[in-house]
Amino acid sequence: MESAIEILTKNLENGGYFRQANPKDFDAEDFFKGFDDKRRARAVWTTTVIPRLISSKHPTLQRTGVALQRKWNSKSYRKRLNQALEQEEIVLSSVHKHQTRVLDHSYKDLCHILKKREASFNEAEDSTGHRNSTESNHIGTEAFGQNSATVGEQAYDGPPSDSLVSETVIDRALLERTSDTIGQVSEVQDDNDETGNEIGDDTDDLSLPLFTDEDRKTLADTYLHLPDNKVTLPSGKVLEDILFSNGVTRERHHLMHSYIIDVDDAATKDMFTPADWAFITKEQEMSVSLSDQDVAKILERFRRADSIGTIMTLLQERHPRLGKGFVMERDYDLKWIFDSISRWLDLYSMPFSVFTSDAPLEYFWRSQVWGALDTMFFDISNTLMIGGESSGLDSTERRNQQQHGKTVRKLVGSKSDGYLRMFGTSKSDWMSIEGAKNWDPFAKKYKHESAWKIGRQLHDIFRARTTEKDQSTIKHFRTYGLIFGGPTAQIHVMSSIGGAVTILRRRSPLTLAPSLQAFGENVTILEIFLLMKKDIVRSFSQHKKTVSAMELFMGSSSTAVVQSTSSIQPIPHAHPSPKKRRVQEPHH
Predict the structure, then answer these.
(1) 239-243, 355-359, 524-528 — which is least confidently predicted?
(2) Whole-model pTM above 0.85?
(3) Packing angle between helix 92-126 and helix 59-73, nearest 10 degrees?
(4) Which residues lie closer than 8 Å to 512 by C-beta, 6 or more apart?
(5) DSSP letters spanning 308-358
(6) Residue 387 CA to chain centroid, in angstroms?
(7) Taking 80 as the threshold, does the pLDDT of residue 266 lie above it?
C-alpha cells in the first residue's frame, strides 16, 4: 500500500509520477489491499494525492486537483456511497471495490487530461520544426513525447483503454477546452447540487474576496504540513480533512481556510453529521469562578437595587476593605465594581436619555460606558487596555512571516479599536475589541467583524499564546474578543478542540438596562466581565516565565524562543489575508 501511495506522490513538481506509460501501472486493486477501515480508501486519496495536486506550481495540476476534490465532495457521490455503507448485506470488500473503481477512473481521467495538455505543447513545438523531446520541461514529456509526430492526425475519442502511449493526440479545437474538460471528467456538473457552492458559498453580504488558485495552493501546502495529531470525530472522519476538502472548493474566503470553526455558521454545520457537530460544539467547563465572597455579596446587593436612592446609599456604604486596609492586588475588584456602577449610574441621571438619542455616540459609549473595561486590569502588572485604531502584534507578525521572497517593507497587521496588551521584556496581546456607532447585527460592518475579522484576530492571538504550551492544556485555554455598539456588547471566545482546529463562539449580547428598574442586568454584565478577567488572568500565570539577567544579556532566552517557535505547532497560522487589490469578478 505504501509503495502504491509513493508511486502516486513522488516527484510532483517535475511530473515524476505522471510519467507512467500506462494508467494500468497503477494497480488500484493492490492499492486497497489490507484496508480494514472502509473509510480509509477515500481518506488516502483525499489526504494524499489531491492536496499535492493543488499545492503544485503547475496550474493544470492545481485545477485538476480542485475538480477531483469537488467530485469527491459532490452530494450525489456521497449519497451513493452512504447508501452502500448503510446496507448491511454489502460486505466490506464490496465497498472497497466500489471505491477502487472510482479512484481508478479518477486516476485515468487525470492522466488523460495531462496527456491532452502535453499534446498541445508538442503540437506547438512541432510547428517550429525544432522538436526535442528530451529538453521539454512540461509534465509527462518522457511518457508523451513519442506522440509528437502524430499531432492533429486523429481526434480525441475518450479515455484510453490500454495505453496512453499508443493513443493519438487530440485536435487543437478540443485542446482549447481543457478547463471545461477538467470539469466534465470530474463530473462536477453532473447534478445541480454538485457545485462549489454546495456547502453554503453564498455569503454575498460579507463581500469576501474570491478564493484564488494561489490561495488553494497555500491551503494545500498548510494541510500537507499539519501534524498527525488530528481530531477524529465520532463518525470516524478526521476534522481537519473535512475542513480542507470543503474549503479548497469554495469560491470565496472563509474562516474554515484557517481551520477555524464558527459554531454559528450554517454552512459549516451542514458539513457534519448531528453527532459530529455535537462533539465539535461541546464546550469545556469553565474553570474559574468568583471565589471572593465579599465580591459576590456586593454584586448581589447592587443587583437587588432598583432606584437611584438605593444605589447611591450602597455606594456611600463603602466596604471596609476599601478603607485604610486597601491592598491593590487583593481588593481592586471591589473598588472596580463601585467605580463602574457609579459611572453607569450617571447615565440614568442625565436630563435626556442617551438610550433613545439619534446622535453619533460611538465615542461616548466606548469611553463613558465600556470604558469600565479600560480600568478592569489596573491591578495586573504590566497590563493595559490599549485604545484607538492600532494593529495587533500577532497579526503583524503573521503577515510578515507569510511574505514571499525578500521582505521589501514591514507589513502592518489587522487593526482593531482596542487590545488588552501585556508589556515587559516582550509584548503580547490577550484580547481584541471592535466598536461601532450603534448595535445592528444585520449591518455589514457587524457581519464582517463578527464573522470574519475578529475570528482571525483571536486565532492569531490564540496561536501565539499557546505556542509553548503543553498540548494537553490547550483545550482549557481561551482568548476573548469584544464587539460593542451603543449600549450593547457581545463577547467572542476562541478555544481549541485539539489538533489544528480552533472554535469561535459568540455569547449572547449584553445590553445595558434602559431604566433603573432593571439595573440588576447591568450588575450581571459586570459579573460576566469579572469572570472573563479571571479566565484571562489564569492564562497569564501559565504564560509568564522567569528570565534571568544573564539569559537576557547572553541572548539565551531569545534563542530559546526562536527554537520553540520553529518546533511543530499543531495550530497553523491563519490563512494569508486576501489581497486588497480588486479581483475581477466572474460574469454570469
Answers:
(1) 355-359
(2) no
(3) 150
(4) 344, 347, 355, 369, 487, 488, 521, 522, 525
(5) HHHHHHHHHS--GGGSTT--HHHHHHHHHHHHHHHHHHGGGTSSS-TTS--
(6) 27
(7) yes
